[in-house]
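Section 5.1 Outputs to date
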Amino acid sequence: MKLLRLLKYLTKKIFLHGILWMAVLLFFTFFFGVEGATLKNVFEFSLYLLPVTITTTYSFVYYIIPKFLLLRNYAHFVFYSICAIIISSVYIIFSTFYGLVFLSQMDVAYRFPITKSLFFIIIAVYIVVLLACSFTLLKNYYKTISTNEELKNSVLQGKLQLKEQQLKYLKMQIHPHFLFNTLNTLYAFSLNKNEKTPKMILQLSNLLDYILYQTQKPLVFLSEEIKHLRDYIELEKNRFQDKLEVNFKTKNISEYTQIPPMLFLPFLENSFKHGKDTNGTIKIDILLTQKDGQLYFEIINSKGHTNSEQNFGANENGIGLENVKQRLNLLFKNHYFLEIENLQSQFKVKLNIHLNKA
């Protein structure tokens, strides 16, 4: 099978090169023609120049250019090019001399088959060599561009896959903590046989549906994300009862805006985890606004003196501040601004995302 492919390749190569040199031969015949000279004589004279033209062309195309020029060994390229030109020029002179001798049979005055001087004969040969070399360089140039483009696409694809894997890993770190808190709340209600238990199960079912299916999408509507946050808050309200006060405001939210899923949940989870003040109550203020292609998110939670050194997600089982920053960097790179303030009685998080640029 390999031998058959090789034979087909060689046959095609020989056929194309044969057509090329026939065209060169016709070019020489036309270029060296003279009024009064027979076509046979001019054609035969051109045949004398064809071997040196073929040898010189292949020397440049298959040896000098790929071995030295393409490898940027310019000194050797210049040296071998000069040697090739000198040697080929000598052979052109001999080919011209013997061609004239044999064709004219020493009767040069009457049967001289060309009108060009020796200089123009050499120029004609090197026009062919130059065209062949130019075609080789052009072919190599486009081949290099194609190879670089494939390599670039391969690298970009690898980076994309790496980012996808990192995002999946970061999301998996978020889900367990979220489910742990929600199931704990549901468990407490079921023990007390609270009448709100069925509603909580339904809310949890909706949240699980969101986590399992919606978060697999690269983008979700911002309105869906807000609904998801409100459902989460409702579940936590059932858990903390009158110990929880949440003020969630949204402004100028476009129904067409899309963002990566579960973008704000880590900040909300952190507020519930560390938001208890000295009286055991949790106060959370959330503001989400959209203006001029930018999305502003701010969340402020209370904290007690025991949490004076509160560190966002410091617990090894939490998602961690580094986790959040990694995900934001992967999703928005330099098109976001995150500010975290750990004050004496409050913990503030401000996130500004340039949606248009991101």
